[in-house]
User: Which sequence fits this backbone?
């Protein structure tokens, strides 16, 4: 019995291959984007973990210089002689590869490599340890032993070897080993140029990049939801079309429980197959996007991630499970319907094609509830998770409200139409809404997500360009390595009577978080170019008089401080905030004081960067190189640094743009599948109109027009929804995730263009079913009138 | 005794309250007998047939099919009885559109695990369906579809065959032809046949006739 029953159930798909394709493709697309994003996230996180292990990040307190990133070897020797247990580490770049040199004799156990046993071998044989990719790049330069646990883009070796490879004789930092003996002299006496960075104060790369990965996950989830709309829609149609078969099977003696079990097994098996395709597709998408994601993470956070993708169980199992759970959720209501369906229920496909007021009413009630929840969440709940919950309520609520809204618009249009064909057209379009509503909801989500995200990105771009103009006002920037260089350059520039902006920098700890402290020379450039988010009167004057500071938005929001609040700049000095400045693309908190105050607080430090205002940048650059003995590579002009910053910015959103396009593609596919699966049900509805005198060609064109008109309604609804989405992203999600708020700009031309794409997508999706209708033989239409149909 | 009704009552609820459909129906049907059940629309004919077919349960009274009392059976038991001892032929044919004619005909016997291929072939030949076996139901005429439905019923070797307006969708000539073949095959298998019909012609061809009026046998 089970085999016969299964054969009958499966025969439905054989006879309806388009429906089977829609089901499998919906699941594959839903799983693909989700799995792809998860694969990227998993790869990145594995890389962060490997990097943290390789560098011993966050495990031990470190000694680092107050300024710069180099420690003289003498400092290390002094510390050892005075009884401090420290281990030297050198970190530097050799082309694209980060070399880490450790001293195994003094190194803490496990530091430097996940595979401790192989370290002596590496040291003895003067080889580096690296993963396979990195080993290949290093191959010609040095002996390399492959160790898969080493982070991508990194190589670990004996400190002497690494120093030779880097051409350096100094160190990068010293690891303060646990269990120090008592009674050593104070560190500040032995090495005044060094300070302790506590292990817990290190902001790990994985923490910094959390919000980036969360955004990717949100996109993956959106695509998954759109894909599930297709699945839900297909399951609905498949069940509606099989009502007759189910009734027959039951009347022929198949017990209800067995029938339901077989249907569940059948649908979930197919779902697993679809999800399997999706996982393969997701792997390909992830492999395609990974280089751009890697570039984004490197540009934004300096994080290296592997360029090759591994098939990790964590993402493909989660993709498979999510697909099965999503399918089971879509299936459960249909299974429930069958369980409750009287054995002799009418076999006419009804609910799927006939609009039921009760269904729309229920959807509308849920929509209103979700939209109310959106407002409440916006008003009363804080945090990133609450922000995403708000987004979820907004998008799902709006999607559920769409069919009722579209039905109202169509009713209105019908009311103002007198021509009989158009009256029928509007009424018939309204009748199609239940069948098409899921696809239309998917399109609404995709278009509004596109509008929202593109508004956010374009607003960000405008703000960022203006921000670069403010911050990169000097025509030349010069970086110096030593105090002598700094003094000499300052003297050289003083002679030229031009505005010079020396910049001193060090790391301090404020509210137990690492913060960059900058010393600046307050002058016309700062006064004229910097735009504050909020300020007191005469903010720069207060800074210049050492009576106030400027902080960036990230620090202000993270620490919950604003203008006039006090900031503990040093243990015995708290200054009020004169202004808060927007600082886009930087995850770290910043405090800006005058150069005098900075010198008083840190007398041993010197300006390491100089901004120079000049109308003759090329000539001055030549003088700096030839006369002031500055390396040409240490000078960068305004145009180059702006171009570099913009390139990093654009690459950051390559992934977002790709996901945007993919989501829109999935939504178009949803429309195509809905129209194709509805096509057979349409014949009995169209045959009478054909019989009354409308040609098949005209009916086909009307079908096309219908799809485009419904898409137009969706686009009209998507614009306010997308703008609301952008507002939420800019004012809630961005602030929670990155710590800065962006102004929102509108881009009407972009919206018109996007709306045009959506209409073209709907037109293309409707073309195949319309052509099929135009070519439907009259005999098929006539059969509708035959009693035996 | 293949079918026995004893004081069977059935009523339905609608917006105006409870509507009695069957009011104390009693009758029986022997193996090999044919019975026509006639009556006006709404007199309860189809309800009686559905109760006999274990598709619906009576509110009161007792019903036996092939020696088993339906009120003693749960859903699984009733389903098993439908698979093995009962065959149904409906006005709307109720074929499975995604299965071929051949698969449809052997479907019920396959469900009960008792496919007798020789018997199936005899039935197919007798109904003139040999050339249609690879087709799907949608490619057949109404008469041919009803022949497939009858073939499916006979192929399952039921003890009780129930037909609800089996020729209601067919023209007069085809209806006569289909009825003739159905009666012949039923006679060959020795099954009992109960036909619900409006047609006096069909009723006249049965061994016995019962008429329902307002839920009562008259």
Assistant:
């Amino acid at each position: 019995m089970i085999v016969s029953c299964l054969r009958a159930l499966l025969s439905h798909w054989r006879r309806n291959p388009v429906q089977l394709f829609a089901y499998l493709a919906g699941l594959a697309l839903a799983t693909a984007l989700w799995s792809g994003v998860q694969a990227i996230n998993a790869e990145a996180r594995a890389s962060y973990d490997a990097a943290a292990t390789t560098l011993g990040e966050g495990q031990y307190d470190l000694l680092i210089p107050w300024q710069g990133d180099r420690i003289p070897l003498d400092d290390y020797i002094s510390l050892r002689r005075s009884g401090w247990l420290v281990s030297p580490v050198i970190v530097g770049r050799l082309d694209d590869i980060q070399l880490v040199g450790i001293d195994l004799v003094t190194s803490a156990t496990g530091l430097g490599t996940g595979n401790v046993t192989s370290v002596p071998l590496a040291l003895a044989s003067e080889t580096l340890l690296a993963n396979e990719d990195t080993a290949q790049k290093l191959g010609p330069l040095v002996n390399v032993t492959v160790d898969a646990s080493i982070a991508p883009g990194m190589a670990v070796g004996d400190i002497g070897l690494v120093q030779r490879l880097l051409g350096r004789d100094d160190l990068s930092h010293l690891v303060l080993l646990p269990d120090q003996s008592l009674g050593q002299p104070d560190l500040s006496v032995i090495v005044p140029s060094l300070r302790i960075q506590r292990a817990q104060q290190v902001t790990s790369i994985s923490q910094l990049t959390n919000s980036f990965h969360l955004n990717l996950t949100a996109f993956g989830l959106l695509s998954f939801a759109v894909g599930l709309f297709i699945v839900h829609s297909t399951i609905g149609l498949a069940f509606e079309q099989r009502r007759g078969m189910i009734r027959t099977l039951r009347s022929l003696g198949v017990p209800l429980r067995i029938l339901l079990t077989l249907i569940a097994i059948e649908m979930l098996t197919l779902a697993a197959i679809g999800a399997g395709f999706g996982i393969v597709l997701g792997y390909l998408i992830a492999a395609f996007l990974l280089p751009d994601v890697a570039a984004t993470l490197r540009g934004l956070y300096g994080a290296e991630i592997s360029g090759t993708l591994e098939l990790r169980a964590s993402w493909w199992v989660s993709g498979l499970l999510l697909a099965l759970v999503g399918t089971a959720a879509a299936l459960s209501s249909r299974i429930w319907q069958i369980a409750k369906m009287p054995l002799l229920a009418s076999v006419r496909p009804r609910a799927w094609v006939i609009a039921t007021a009760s269904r729309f009413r229920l959807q509308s009630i849920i929509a209103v509830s979700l939209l109310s929840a959106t407002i409440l969440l916006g008003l009363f709940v804080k945090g990133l998770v609450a922000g995403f919950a708000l987004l979820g309520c907004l998008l799902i609520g709006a999607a559920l409200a769409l069919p009722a809204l579209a039905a109202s618009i169509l009713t209105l249009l019908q009311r103002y139409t007198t021509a009989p064909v158009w009256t029928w057209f509007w009424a018939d379009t309204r009748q199609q809404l239940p069948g098409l509503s899921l696809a239309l909801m998917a399109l609404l989500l995709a278009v509004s997500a596109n509008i929202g995200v593109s508004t956010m990105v374009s607003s960000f771009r405008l703000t960022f360009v203006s921000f670069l103009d403010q911050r990169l006002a000097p025509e030349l920037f010069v970086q110096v390595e030593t105090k002598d260089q700094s003094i000499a350059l300052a003297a050289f520039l003083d002679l030229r009577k031009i505005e010079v902006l020396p910049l001193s920098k060090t790391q301090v700890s404020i509210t137990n978080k690492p913060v960059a402290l900058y010393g600046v020379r307050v002058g016309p450039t700062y006064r004229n170019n910097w735009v504050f988010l909020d300020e007191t009167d005469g903010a720069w004057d207060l800074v210049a008089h050492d009576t106030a500071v400027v902080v960036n938005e990230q620090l202000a929001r993270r620490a919950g401080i604003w203008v006039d609040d006090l900031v503990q700049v040093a243990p015995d000095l708290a200054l009020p905030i004169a202004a808060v400045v927007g600082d886009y693309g930087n995850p770290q908190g910043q405090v800006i004081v005058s150069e005098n105050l900075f010198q008083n607080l840190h007398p041993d430090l010197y300006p390491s960067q100089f901004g120079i205002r000049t109308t003759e940048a090329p000539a001055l650059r030549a003088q700096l190189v030839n006369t002031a003995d500055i390396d040409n590579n240490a000078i960068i002009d305004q145009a180059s640094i702006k171009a570099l910053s913009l390139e990093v910015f654009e690459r950051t959103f390559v992934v977002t743009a790709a996901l945007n396009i993919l989501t829109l593609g999935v939504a178009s596919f949803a429309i195509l599948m809905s129209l194709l699966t509805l096509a057979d049900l349409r014949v009995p509805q169209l045959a009478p109109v054909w019989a009354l005198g409308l040609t098949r060609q005209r009916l086909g064109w009307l079908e096309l027009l219908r799809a485009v008109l419904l898409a137009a309604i969706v686009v009209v609804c998507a614009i306010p929804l997308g703008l609301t989405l952008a507002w939420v992203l800019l004012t809630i999600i961005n602030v929670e995730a990155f710590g800065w708020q962006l102004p929102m700009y509108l881009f009407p031309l972009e919206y018109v263009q996007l709306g045009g794409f959506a209409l073209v997508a709907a037109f293309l999706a409707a073309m195949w079913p319309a052509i099929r209708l135009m070519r439907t033989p009259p005999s098929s239409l006539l059969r509708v009138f035959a009693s035996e149909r | 005794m293949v079918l026995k009704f004893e004081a069977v009552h059935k009523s339905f609820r609608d917006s105006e309250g409870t509507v009695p459909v069957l009011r104390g129906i009693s009758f029986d049907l022997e193996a090999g007998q044919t019975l026509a059940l006639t009556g006006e629309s709404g007199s309860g004919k189809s309800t009686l047939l559905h109760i006999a077919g274990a598709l619906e349960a009576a509110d009161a009274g007792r019903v036996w099919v092939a020696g088993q009392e339906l009120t003693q059976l749960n859903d699984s038991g009733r389903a098993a009885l439908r698979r093995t001892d009962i065959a149904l032929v409906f006005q709307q044919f109720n074929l499975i559109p995604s299965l071929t004619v051949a698969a449809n005909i052997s479907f019920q016997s396959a469900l009960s695990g008792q496919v007798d291929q020789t018997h199936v072939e005899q039935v197919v030949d007798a109904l003139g369906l040999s050339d249609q076996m690879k087709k799907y139901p949608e490619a057949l005429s109404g008469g041919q579809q009803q022949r497939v439905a009858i073939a499916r019923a006979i192929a399952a070797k039921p003890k009780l065959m129930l037909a609800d307006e089996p020729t209601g969708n067919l023209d007069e000539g085809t209806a006569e032809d289909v009825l003739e073949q159905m009666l012949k095959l039923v006679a060959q298998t020795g099954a009992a046949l109960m036909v619900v019909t409006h047609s006096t012609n069909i009723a006249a061809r049965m061994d016995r006739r019962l008429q329902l009026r307002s839920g009562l046998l008259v």
In short: Chain A touches chain B at residues 1, 3-5, 7-8, 11-12, 14-16, 244-245, 247-257, 343-344, 347, 786-788 (CB under 8 Å). The first helix of chain A runs from residue 2 to 15. Residues 109-118, 346-355 of chain A have pLDDT under 50 and may be disordered.
